[in-house]
């Protein structure tokens, strides 16, 4: 029986069907290697294109190395480029093959065509094979003396590459001195710029070990060099101008005459079409005049027009970068830019990130003369279809109100926002009205009249609802329905998912109780009962605190919860003046765009204690998770013990040894004052101050608390089948703040067990805590664990550094849900304790 016929399929030219394709290419290249027939270069081009395409998609074509080198014996520049690309790709990974290319690259370095000489020298210096540096010194020396500027330019960068391969070889060949000579005497400005860039990098690296290199580095910012380069700056490319201007910004002039000479030389750079050149020039002007206050202010006036021109021209990305720098200057000198506020009005076609930055600038430049116009413009944005921008505009109005003295018109605008039938507008306005009342309590009558008409059912955002509740508690004496609104919110306690709202509700009910006790008595009892039963630790603790405070002394409780308040004069700034100065020192860099100093996004300790990109690849991936879940032991506070009176607590401790670590301060209940602070609440509050052991029961009866104690929250359970990939772990580790950082001592059993790290991994897996990476050698070990909360998406990340010689373990925990960080820490340490940890 004949075999079935195979289907005829022509392979794609970019996807070989197997090794036969590479073999065919090898045969064809060998046939063309020595051919001089007409059109042979065109045939080579087609074959070279196939080889490059295969290499690009990851197919190994290193077996064609010899044939590619043989076919490169041509004057066709396109073929040379493709061959150099191929050679550079495989040379570093195959040093033996790279040796085969030396002869033909050195030969091409002596070609008559300067383009081929430059390309060959660039490819030769890009091999980056340490064993071949001896073959690089000669061509580089010849290239630095070449008659063609392109070859010299390539040779200068080749010297820098040689330095990174073998610094000693580069210095011994005296290349830095040659580069310095070229920088000061070469007629081509691109060569000069390359020399400047290479020397800065070489001498900066050598300065730490060589005094001569340190002195040479200082000569780069000496007066003769600076003024020589500045006199030629117009001949430089835009990139070279930026490089030179960065160098000039480091120069310290001897006197004011030098400062003015430099500024005169650079005056026309402020009109340059390239934004990078303008910003670099502005940095020079600002740095030079820092010690001259009057001139520094004039510089602000001078640079204002170029910056505003750049903002209005160019791409949105460029506008954002320039606006970021302009924003920094506005924060330092808002009065200079106050008359140009209209330049910061938002255009309909601008991206949201540009609009947001402009809103911040409008807030910064607002003063007594332009506030009305700016607020009017911002109010127009409140109806914007772009909801985030509408929110930002309302916040901007609030910020302006908090920094101005005459806020009459602004308050009216904010109150109009409350009457708009848009949920997000009402929500933002409520938050701002709360802050406004904290600073200007005299406006409470007007604001409360409008706020009282807002139904709490129509406010869903947590921050807005918290602000409304704060006003209900703070001004409950002026709002007739305040106790009943708070009572309704308390009845729907279980439907409120935000802990922030529940915390504000507890405090507001307490405040309202001290001002209108008969109407709030029921709501306070329900709020305390719900708070004591709340699973959120902060809510539970605050309710317990209020309960114990009422039990101790109602008058003291009122002074604690609702004391006389002074108006807030200044709200905290997110950035300190020191950080702003650091950002200003790094003008014309990413620090200005990120609005944070460079160390905050480059230093390792600010990215996290472990840099994954460098070290994660060296760690081993943890073993597979097991299905068995062993629940860790937990030590919980006995809330029932906390709710007992002092005498009852002593009796219960005598009868049972429950091991509770809580101890309340002792006091004499009979000495508690029976007077309340307000006359209208004397009769009710006096009932709370019952002397003797029955005080807590009297409060329970009065407030309707039928619970002797609040139930403890359920123990934390972990998902035994949690899965997390290393990339997600790395991203979350960088983003999340440190929740718990503890150091523990190891006992001898723990140290002995850690001689085999896999035992720790298996032990933690039995507790549903997985190891994603581990590494190190004795005595230092590092483990990365993760866990997931059962039936939820909350993730727990752990870094565990162990030093067996000092018997110490440093444990760092980061979590998605900060509310369960301590609980997970207890569970984690409990699991570790079974492995020999204390």
UniProtKB/TrEMBL annotation:
GO terms for biological process: intracellular protein transport; vesicle-mediated transport. The keyword Membrane applies. GO terms for cellular component: clathrin adaptor complex; endomembrane system. It is found in: Endomembrane system. Belongs to the adaptor complexes large subunit family. Subunit of clathrin-associated adaptor protein complex that plays a role in protein sorting in the late-Golgi/trans-Golgi network (TGN) and/or endosomes. The AP complexes mediate both the recruitment of clathrin to membranes and the recognition of sorting signals within the cytosolic tails of transmembrane cargo molecules. This is Beta-adaptin-like protein. It comes from Hevea brasiliensis (Para rubber tree).
């Amino acid at each position: 029986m004949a075999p079935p016929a195979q289907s005829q399929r022509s392979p794609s030219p970019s996807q070989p069907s197997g090794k036969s394709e590479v073999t065919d290419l090898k045969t064809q290249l060998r046939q063309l290697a020595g051919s001089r027939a007409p059109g042979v270069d065109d045939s080579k081009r087609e074959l070279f294109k196939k080889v490059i395409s295969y290499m690009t998609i990851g197919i190994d074509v290193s077996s064609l190395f010899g044939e590619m080198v043989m076919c490169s014996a041509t004057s066709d520049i396109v073929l040379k480029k493709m061959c150099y690309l191929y050679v550079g790709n495989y040379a570093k990974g195959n040093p033996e093959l790279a040796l085969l290319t030396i002869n033909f690259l050195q030969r091409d370095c002596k070609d008559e065509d300067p383009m081929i000489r430059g390309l060959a020298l660039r490819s030769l210096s890009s091999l980056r094979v340490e064993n071949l540096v001896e073959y690089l010194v000669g061509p580089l020396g010849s290239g630095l003396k070449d008659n063609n500027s392109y070859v010299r330019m390539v040779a200068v960068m080749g010297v820098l590459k040689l330095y990174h391969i073998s610094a000693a070889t580069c210095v011994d060949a005296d290349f830095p001195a040659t580069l310095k000579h070229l920088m000061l005497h070469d007629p081509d400005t691109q060569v000069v710029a390359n020399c400047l860039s290479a020397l800065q990098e070489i001498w900066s690296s050598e300065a730490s070990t060589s005094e001569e290199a340190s002195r040479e580095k200082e000569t780069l910012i000496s007066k003769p060099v600076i003024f020589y380069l500045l006199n030629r700056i117009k001949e430089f490319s835009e990139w070279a101008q930026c490089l030179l201007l960065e160098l000039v910004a480091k120069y310290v002039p001897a006197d004011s005459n030098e400062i003015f000479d430099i500024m005169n030389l650079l005056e026309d750079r402020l009109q340059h079409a390239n934004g990078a050149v303008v910003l670099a020039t502005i940095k020079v002007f600002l740095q030079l005049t820092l010690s001259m206050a009057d001139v520094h202010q004039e510089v602000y006036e001078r640079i204002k027009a170029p910056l505003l021109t750049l903002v209005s021209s160019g791409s949105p990305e460029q506008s954002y970068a320039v606006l970021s720098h302009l924003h920094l200057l506005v924060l330092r000198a808002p009065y200079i830019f106050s008359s140009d506020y209209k330049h910061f009005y938002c255009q309909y076609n601008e991206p949201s990130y540009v609009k947001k930055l402009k809103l911040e600038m409008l807030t910064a430049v607002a003063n007594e003369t332009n506030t009305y116009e700016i607020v009017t413009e911002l109010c127009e944005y409140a109806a914007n279809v772009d909801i985030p921008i509408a929110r930002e505009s309302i916040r901007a109005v609030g910020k302006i109100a908090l920094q101005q003295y005459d806020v009459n018109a602004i308050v009216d605008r904010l109150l109009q926002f409350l009457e708009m039938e848009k949920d997000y507008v009402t929500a933002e306005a409520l938050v701002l009205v709360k802050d406004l009342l904290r600073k200007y309590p005299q406006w409470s009558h007007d604001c409360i009249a409008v706020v009282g008409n807002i139904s709490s059912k129509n406010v869903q955002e947590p921050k807005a609802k918290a602000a409304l509740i704060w006003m209900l508690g703070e001004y409950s004496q002026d709002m007739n329905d305040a106790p009943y609104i708070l009572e309704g919110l308390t009845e729907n306690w279980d439907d409120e998912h935000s802990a922030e709202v529940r915390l504000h509700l507890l405090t507001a009910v307490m405040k309202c109780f001290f001002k209108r006790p008969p109407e709030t008595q029921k709501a306070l009892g329900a709020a305390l009962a719900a708070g004591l039963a709340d699973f959120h630790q902060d809510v539970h603790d605050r309710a317990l605190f209020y309960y114990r405070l009422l039990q101790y002394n109602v008058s003291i409780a009122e002074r604690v919860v609702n004391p006389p308040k002074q108006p807030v004069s200044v709200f905290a700034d997110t950035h300190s003046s020191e950080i702003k100065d650091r950002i200003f020192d790094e003008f014309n860099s990413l620090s200005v765009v990120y609005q944070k100093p460079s160390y905050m996004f480059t230093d390792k300790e600010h990215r996290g204690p472990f840099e994954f990109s460098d070290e994660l690849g060296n760690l081993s991936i943890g073993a597979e998770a097991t299905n068995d879940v062993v629940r860790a032991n937990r030590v919980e506070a006995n809330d029932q013990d906390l709710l007992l009176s002092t005498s009852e607590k002593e009796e219960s401790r005598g009868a049972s040894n429950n091991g509770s670590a809580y101890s309340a301060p002792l006091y004499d209940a009979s000495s508690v004052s029976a007077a309340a602070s307000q006359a209208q609440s004397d009769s009710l509050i006096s009932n709370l101050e019952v002397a003797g052991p029955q005080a807590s029961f009297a409060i329970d009866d009065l407030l309707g608390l039928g619970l002797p104690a609040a139930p403890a929250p359920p123990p934390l359970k972990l998902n035994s089948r949690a899965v997390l990939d290393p990339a997600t772990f790395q991203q979350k580790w960088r983003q999340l703040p440190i929740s718990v950082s503890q150091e523990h001592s190891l006992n001898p059993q723990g140290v002995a067990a850690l001689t085999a790290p896999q035992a720790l991994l298996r032990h933690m897996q039995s507790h549903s805590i997985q190891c994603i990476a581990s590494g190190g050698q004795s005595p230092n070990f590092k483990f990365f664990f993760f866990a997931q909360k059962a039936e939820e998406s909350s993730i727990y990340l752990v870094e565990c550094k162990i030093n067996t010689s000092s018997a110490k373990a440093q444990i760092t925990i980061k979590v998605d849900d900060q509310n369960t960080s301590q609980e997970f820490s207890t569970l984690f340490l409990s699991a570790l304790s079974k492995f020999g940890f204390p």
